[in-house]
Fold these 2 entries.
Entry 1:
Amino acid sequence: MNDLDKIIICNRCQTPHIKKNITNDEIAICNICGNVLYKKYNNLLLKLFSFSLSAFIFFFIANLFPVIGIDIAGYNGELRIIETIFFLFNNGYVFLSFFTLMTIVIFPLMLISATFMFSLLRIFKIKSKFSKELLVLITILREFVYIDIFFVAILVSLVKIFEYGYILLGVGFVSLAILFVLMIYMYRYINISAYWELLDV
Ligand SMILES: [Zn+2]
């Protein structure tokens, strides 16, 4: 560990702090603004490995199977994510369909794959410049993945549709819900600085 590794800068008030060793239940907090500086996560690498692998599987199920089945006033339909994006495109919402495709399908897939590869490289302690590049990709992509917002939007619209008709929650919905939890844990709950700590250069 060199001297620079011992310093951490608060991402809210930019005050530099000297790092201390903390245990698993402790949280390091900025003494100026109270912002969380860092936490210690148990077995983070193994968690990232198993959660990204699970997220990969549930991502495919959520995309292949219908998310919801609707029965409104004699209309029967199933809703799949990809079909919905095509529907938007065919109805002239070119930008919206492209935006949805990137933030709901392409970026999440890239992010999950990058996390999986990164954890694999680190578990086997493979020294490679590639792991740093993966980490840069993860850091950028996590800001452009909207699966959580998408899922909440579905929940909100479900409440509306419930008033009008019968709704069946499909296998895709359950997978999307699990994917939602995994994504929240990997990319919102775990601070990105914890990912960078795993990198040893
Ligand atoms: Zn601060």
Entry 2:
Amino acid sequence: MTITTARDTGTSRTPDDVGIRPRKIRFPFSSMKERFFYQDNALLSAFFAALSSTFPPGEAEFIASVRNYRGQIDDPRLQEQIRGFIGQEGHHSHQHKKANEILRGLGLDAVRLEKHLQRDIDRFLRRKRATPKFRLAMTVGMEHLTAIMAEFVLKNPQVLAPLDEPVRDLLYWHAVEEIEHKAVAFDVYMQTEGDRRYLRRILRLVTVLFSVRIACYMAALLWWAKRRPRWADIRGLWRFMFGAEGMISSIRQPYRDYFSHNFHPWDHDNRDLIEKWQNELRKDSETAA
Ligand SMILES: [Fe+2]
Ligand SMILES: [Fe+2]
């Protein structure tokens, strides 16, 4: 028999040597000049812009959903990690807001999408269905998706190589911190609610909602920019997603791990990626400030 509602009474399972502290890095986005900044591919540029548009409202909701449970956490280490998580997500949100302004200036109106998502979240929060448990489970699911996408870009540097340096650095920095705090919302959920079956159900929902929203946002960006995708754009997007080293092909297995009986985000130890990019980022922060 599978016990699905057992709460974790132990402590946070993030490894001791993983610090969750926000790095105050600024990025000189104003050097961005091209509207279709990813290999002149309209679809892939719209993909990255759509992704960026969702971060400010999305991450604010992640923070709020974790904060709801703060008072129920006795584990001092997890309390400290919650502080780090809030600091990191808050800073990501702030930097993506700036990136979205630049994207709007280039003709990809990520700010309009950001406001659209904010309105949707506000509307949703007024509904009865938006219980603290549902909101936290949504956050845990989204944190799993961001952590496995983060691992994908850090493991495959060729993926972000075509981007301008400030955008590339932004995404690497974001990816590293996503890996550092990947288990915080999960541990909060497991120490309070502990209902694994519900968590798995919500991940399926989150995956569909997120994928559909990104696809619609890409379409909106290209519609507003009056650009119809060319065959080369479609081929490039297909390769990026479904090629042998493509994103979907690479994250399929780590995605599925979430459904295993005793899953924990740190079952998959990728501290090596943090270390590898931390050294890079420290160097960049000195020049970018
Ligand atoms: Fe983030
Ligand atoms: Fe996150």
